[in-house]
């Protein structure tokens, strides 16, 4: 973001003929979610979707009362869908991603154990 601010500061507000110059568009942004479930790498699709919806609501710039109502409504809707059983089973499957170095260590231990026999 500092890069875009520096470019805007250098950009002249008027061109040589007295006309105004269009401002630079804002830089593209990307939300990166970090949470205990994501850090531990055990999560389900439903948890990720609910978390993303809550963060999007919080960062929407709307008044806080409206944001709270939106989050509560979304959570109540999801809870009702869970109680009624309308969500598909894959939404609840826990995804456990094994880190590459852990996977390689596990494979190496199996390989060493196989060589000792």
From TrEMBL:
Assigned GO CC terms: alpha DNA polymerase:primase complex
Keyword field contains Zinc-finger: no
E.C. no: 2.7.7.7
Pfam families, alphabetized: DNA_pol_B (PF00136)
Region Disordered, annotated ranges: 1-28
Xref: InterPro entries: DNA-dir_DNA_pol_B_multi_dom, DNA/RNA_pol_sf, DNA_pol_B_thumb
Keywords assigned by UniProt, alphabetized: DNA-directed DNA polymerase, Nucleotidyltransferase, Transferase
UniProt-recorded Gene Ontology molecular function terms: chromatin binding; DNA replication origin binding; DNA-directed DNA polymerase activity; nucleotide binding; single-stranded DNA binding
Protein name: DNA-directed DNA polymerase
Originating species: Dibothriocephalus latus (Fish tapeworm)
């Amino acid at each position: 973001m500092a890069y875009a601010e520096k470019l805007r500061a250098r950009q002249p507000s008027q061109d040589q003929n007295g006309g105004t110059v269009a401002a630079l568009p804002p830089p593209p942004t990307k939300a990166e979610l970090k949470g205990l479930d994501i850090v531990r790498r055990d999560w389900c699709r439903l948890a990720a979707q609910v978390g993303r919806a809550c963060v999007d609501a919080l960062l929407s710039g709307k008044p806080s009362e409206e944001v709270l109502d939106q989050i509560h409504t979304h959570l109540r809707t999801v809870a009702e869908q869970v109680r009624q059983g309308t969500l598909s089973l894959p939404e609840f499957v826990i995804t456990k991603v094994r880190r590459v170095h852990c996977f390689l260590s596990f494979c190496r231990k199996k390989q060493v154990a196989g060589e000792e026999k």
